[in-house]
């Protein structure tokens, strides 16, 4: 993705049908109007279907994988972990939350093979799934593959059980709103927001480089505006729909929550933050947030529909907590290919995060927890274990 270019934006998937939100959005970052909300409501009226739906028991389970991040010969243990998590948890929806592949592919076919390897655990079990893009998914462009995120999105949307929505004009290629219908009827009971957090900052902005700053990309104001307007439109049509949000690169607030402060990284402050924010899980590396804070968290506070915002990116962080009424957290890194902890413990935090929903519970969103490869009896040897050959590509 070119940070300076305007890339696609996402529609709304209500149980599987994409509804363009172009009419919902004011151009650029202009303020919303009452007419915008009215237009958005009309868009929703013709977009409800039942692709994502609570079970007859009123339950719905989400599994979040992160950073599968490998080439056409994916480490076989990544797939073993995904297989075992899906077989054990029996999720209704699975997300790969960014850095689906890395820069190893040399051809467009190898890009497709790398993606195909890590979506087969869902496709083969007929489990609905989606992905967000991370900072590494376009790395193979430097090898001449010409596989942009937009082209990858076209490819993955050909899978039978993929529920990513189409490209549109907003920055990024994996922004989506997915609405989960209740067990009876098509009225949405819960939502899933997916945002594309981009790749890297430009080499310079305003003649200044990013020395001393984290040089990762950031969720753009137009994406925040898209979320705000789509959220308003959803509330206008269906009432406020509680939701979870997923994106790859963490927010500044993921750092602030851990330390209980904004501009320090003092571990002495962490003990108080644990109590204040009910933090659980591990932090084994810095929070590698985007270079700029574009205000997504304050938009979440304003709208009041997102119960938790979860990222990946930092493979060996697995913590979560409650930050002023909104959960902020990580899913652990899933892939056995990229970096992990040091030495013999390299793979000790390979895992996934599970979210449990119950439409009969007052909050609907009832629990989240992490599961790890080491608990499934998967080989933790630090040495790489690639596939002998890529999994067969689908006919599409």
From TrEMBL:
<dbReference type="Pfam" id="PF00149">
    <property type="entry name" value="Metallophos"/>
</dbReference>
<dbReference type="InterPro" id="IPR006311">
    <property type="entry name" value="TAT_signal"/>
</dbReference>
<feature type="domain" description="Calcineurin-like phosphoesterase">
    <location>
        <begin position="60"/>
        <end position="316"/>
    </location>
</feature>
<dbReference type="InterPro" id="IPR004843">
    <property type="entry name" value="Calcineurin-like_PHP"/>
</dbReference>
<protein>
    <recommendedName>
        <fullName>Calcineurin-like phosphoesterase domain-containing protein</fullName>
    </recommendedName>
</protein>
<feature type="signal peptide">
    <location>
        <begin position="1"/>
        <end position="31"/>
    </location>
</feature>
<keyword id="KW-0732">Signal</keyword>
<dbReference type="InterPro" id="IPR029052">
    <property type="entry name" value="Metallo-depent_PP-like"/>
</dbReference>
